Amino acid sequence: MIKDVREGLPRLPRVGEGKRGPEGYLTYLLRQANASVRLALDRALARENMTYPQQSALTMIRAYEAISAADLARLTMLTPQTINGIVRALEIRGAIRREPDRVNGRILRLIVTEEGRDLNKRCRALAAPIEGALNARMSANAREAVRHWLVDVAEAFLD
To answer: Taking the model in full, what pTM does it have?
Structure first.
């Protein structure tokens, strides 16, 4: 075993080695892949002073116009507290606005502004190379199979 700079301690495995490689637990490998992609996305989106959770939320608000913050939390798989912080940040930036629901005025609907549409478009362009790199690592058949498998896994573990 190769020693690392920490005197007398074994070197930690790199991605692809040991339990961080194909023989590792699937749950760990999913987490490792997610963390790696998340870091790449956060680094890319930093050019727009955005995080991946903020971009994900903005994308969902744009896709499902007039959703509530509670709906947004469910769509993005983030806690209501995290969503509240993201909504505030997007609102301060002028990317979204809140409007009272027509039936139940206590519910605030999230609406993307023109600035929000432009910001989302710029962020999608920053994320496109990462999405492209993911797609390039698979054949079209594998890509379709992986997409279906990921959806199936998500459905299998819903409450």
So the answer is: 0.86
